[in-house]
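idk why but the lab printer keeps eating my pages so im just putting this in chat instead. protein + manganese (II) ion:
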Amino acid sequence: MKIIHTADLHLGMRPDRGQPWSDERSEALWQTFRFIVRTTKEKRADLLLIAGDLFHRQPLARELKEADSLLASLAPTPVVLIAGNHDCLSPHSHYRNFTWSDNVIFIDSPRPDSVLLSDLGVVIHGFSYHQAEVREALCDHLHVPNDGYIHILLAHGGDAGHVPMDKQRLAAAGFHYAALGHIHKPQLCEDLRLAWCGSPEPLDCTDTGSRGVIEADVTRARTRLTFIPSATASYIPLSVTVNAGTTREKLALSLEKAMASGKGKRYYVITIQGERNMDTDFSTPLSLPCPVARWEDRTRIAVDYDRLLSEHSGDLLGQFISEMRRQPPGPLRDRALAFGVRACLGEEAQQ
Ligand SMILES: [Mn+2]
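predcted complex ->
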């Protein structure tokens, strides 16, 4: 049977909050959801699995309605979903009184429960979070019966605060496939018949690398996994090392060159390092052809302290440099040293 496995869509989230493109990122999450539904249709998959955190927080009633109408368009193909830590079934959650379309099955039990899809000869085992944290290793003691059905685990977690999981133990439980969510970086373990599909869209600037959904071809005998990229955008880290001769315009030219290649909507995560001239400021982001999600200036001011010290050994500047060099090293000391030297030298320091 063919399964499309997704999780961690985080609908309702506003990535890069405060940035001018934040609304666009928020809308892209729904766009990717539509892509996943379309892919399920186009691949003629037998089943769509959503392993938690479909929503970023408690879903609004209208958001549930929208999600359900999209999933209903797959009918009669079944969709099975669970709630994760972000969209857990809190006491007043709209999940609790929502009526899903006939082809959508929500496993709401807080402990592993199972659903038989007799047409497909498959049993889905799953559970939903009822609070944001579940420290119990709920998957550790599961065991699959040898009853001729295909058994699939649908679970959310994998870290200490969210259903700790041991991959070997999970593999030993005998599931023909474990469709997992919560870890946003995709992790496919075909030999162990398990995978975290990751978030299908990057959710912040640390989510670098490819994002997608998993197409799982599952029989009782074997499981094959294919990664299908789904993201509308990507965050690209770009690190540039400058020196005392680098001006802002020189830096802009090299960044523009680096940005010229690449496909799709790209948001850059830029780090400037190395030493800069005292008069050059890299802390203010440059205006560039692609949006910059994060700009980090890690440069230090380049001053030839040894030369200054030998030239000013008998005066206040010399004393100041020697004294500052006895302080614990770090960016604060470097800045104080640079400002002090500049104050002592006046214009001279700028040459
Ligand atoms: Mn999660």
